[in-house]
Amino acid sequence: MMRSAMNDETEMMQRLPRILLVLMSVTMAGTVWAGDDPGRSLYLRYCAACHGREGRGDGFVAPALGQKPTDLTQIAAEHGGRFPLDEVIDAIDGTRTVRAHGVSEMPVWGEVFRADGAFAGQARKREMVKLIADHVSTLQSPKPPSH
After folding, report:
1. 51-60: long-range contacts, CB 8 A cutoff, minimum separation 24
2. pLDDT tens-digit profile of 61-85?
3. How far apart are CA 99 and CA 106, in angstroms?
């Protein structure tokens, strides 16, 4: 049991610089104007550093991460052409684990929004997460051909 706790602590210390890089990039990005689409603005502010502006997992922070961020443009294709809005919301706010194997380096945005005074209240946090998920639904593209 003691060894497991030490391994968890070591793993967290190894991940800490990458997590800090992500959070610093989000902080430095500030508010990004995206026209009249608040979901896009939130996505660009909180998600694009890792997932890229178009959601392909190619954000400027992606090379520093241990695992390539998820290609968000393929979510519907991987679910038979249906965009699983509730599952995406749960993944963003941390209700469910993003990766089935390995450790996810994605911040638990629900906790970040809850701690940020601008997003006070559970209903407001859920609204922000839903706006981001709605924007991600607009990024969907057909599954690329396999080679």
Report:
1. 54/139, 55/136, 55/139, 60/25
2. 999 888 889 999 999 999 999 999 9
3. 10
- Residues whose CB falls within 8 Å of the CB of residue 14, separated by 6 or more in sequence, listed in order: none
Distance of CA 22 to the CA centre of its chain: 10
Does the predicted TM-score (pTM) go above 0.70? no
DSSP string, 3-25: HHHHHHHHHHHHHHHHHHHHHHH
Q: What is the CATH number of domain 2-138?
A: 1.10.760
End-to-end Cα separation, the chain, in angstroms:
45
Q: Which residue has the tokens 């500030």?
A: 30
